[in-house]
Design brief:
It is a single chain. This protein is 42% helix and 17% strand. The protein is an alpha/beta fold and 380 residues long. The chain has an 8-stranded mixed β-sheet with strand order 3-4-6-5-7-8-11-12, with helices on both faces. Strands 1-2 form a two-stranded antiparallel sheet. Strands 9-10 form a two-stranded antiparallel sheet. Helix 1 (9-40) packs antiparallel against helix 2 (44-74). The longest helix is centred in the first third of the chain and has 32 residues, at 9-40. The protein is globular. 29% of the residues are buried.
């Protein structure tokens, strides 16, 4: 994948200025060369060498002229590489298999761990990262059961806190002293709890449409346990042949329109879709996402319990919380979002958008992120 930027017409004229001027001078010399040779009575060998030199310069001038005419009529279509961040993909070992990683930038730069939301994958950041500062090393993770990563062992239900172990595997693999962490939705909740458990590893934290773990009642917790176990039993009885298959266009459409909140464009849906399918025939694909994710088990946290956790394990590093107006309206009765945003070291920003605006309209939040990322950390 390559990133291009369209440059203004003036830039191209500036780049051509020196070349055209030099070639024009050579062209003048080439056309007047015979008269100079006659006037100074050059020897044949010297005349041959100079003549060949001027002919070459003249030919290059003609090529430049043709290129320039083509450029004038097609300049809007011309793209030039501008400080493109290197993109690499690889897998790192984990006790249950492998975790897929997509990195942007130079590994020597300050690393930023980027975690996606539930049912998404590392492709969720494809539109956003090109708008962020290039002097960071963006480590985008496919969480287990998502994207190109292996699933957790199939014999057990999925629990929210198990994913904290996956984050620690990534942290230990890259072996850096400090990380900036950025998470969207489910990924943001994971990283908030991770920051409380391992504050020494986190330099800054950014959450996109994500507060803290939503509190649930004991009754809801027991129900989620039962549903989680039933889901495992049901899935283990399935054969891969029983999974539905779709055309590629249908896959993209389901990803684009199957969001809990907001709708993706086809282009941004493809960023996610291509990492969560396998081809089984001619234009026939199956989803590879872990179906247990529909019944993930969250901790039994009451609001009082969450208050105590924040009291005992406060987040002390600089933090940025960005919320789309649509999400705040959905959770306006949930005070923990607002309490989270009122911590003294947290910057809170609301913008007019939906849950996946970081994919469809990344320009809405990129300036906020850039300012926060480049802001020096106070030593006080």
């Amino acid at each position: 994948m390559e990133n291009f930027q369209l440059l203004p017409l003036q830039t191209y004229f500036m780049k051509l200025q020196k070349q055209v001027a030099t070639r024009y001078a050579a062209f003048v010399l080439w056309t007047t060369a015979p008269s100079y040779f006659r006037a100074f009575n050059y020897k044949n060998s010297e005349r041959e060498i100079c003549s060949k030199l001027f002919i070459r310069l003249g030919r290059n001038t003609l090529i430049d002229f043709i290129w320039f005419v083509n450029f004038v009529f097609n300049w809007r279509k011309v793209h030039v590489h501008v400080d493109v961040m290197e993109i690499r993909e690889f897998k790192i070992p984990a006790p249950w298999g492998h975790i897929a990683i997509k990195v942007w930038g130079d590994y020597r730069n300050q690393p930023i761990i980027c975690l996606h939301g539930l049912h998404d994958n590392a492709g969720t950041f494809d539109a956003l990262i090109p708008l962020l500062p290039q002097n960071f090393y963006y480590i985008c993770v496919d969480l287990p059961g998502h994207g190109l990563s292996d699933h957790f062992p199939s014999s057990l239900p999925l629990e929210f806190t198990t994913y904290l172990f996956a984050v620690s595997v990534v942290i230990e693999h890259f072996n850096r002293q400090k990380y900036i962490v950025m998470g969207h939705s489910f990924g943001g909740r994971l990283l908030t709890l991770f920051t409380q458990i391992y504050p020494e590893s986190v330099l800054k934290i950014i959450t996109l449409d994500s507060g803290y773990i939503l509190p649930i009642t004991p009754k809801e917790y027991v129900y989620s346990l039962k549903e989680g176990y039933q889901t495992v039993k049901k899935i283990r009885s399935f054969e891969s042949e029983e999974c539905p298959s779709y055309s590629y266009d249908a896959i993209v459409d389901k990803v684009a329109n199957g969001r809990v909140a907001g709708v993706l464009t086809n282009e941004t849906a493809e960023h996610i879709a291509k990492r969560m399918i396998r081809k089984i025939g001619d234009d026939k694909y199956q989803f590879t996402i872990d179906r247990r994710l529909r019944s993930i088990i969250y901790p039994c946290f009451t609001e009082q319990y969450v208050d105590k956790i924040f009291e005992k394990f406060p987040i002390r590093c600089p933090a940025l919380a960005i919320f789309a107006s649509e999400i705040l309206q959905m959770f306006e009765e949930y005070e923990k979002i607002h309490k989270f945003s009122q911590l003294p070291n947290i910057e809170f920003h609301e913008f007019d958008g939906h849950h996946h605006s970081h994919q469809t309209n990344p320009e809405l939040i990129a300036p906020i992120l850039n300012k926060f990322l480049l802001k020096p950390i106070s030593k006080l």
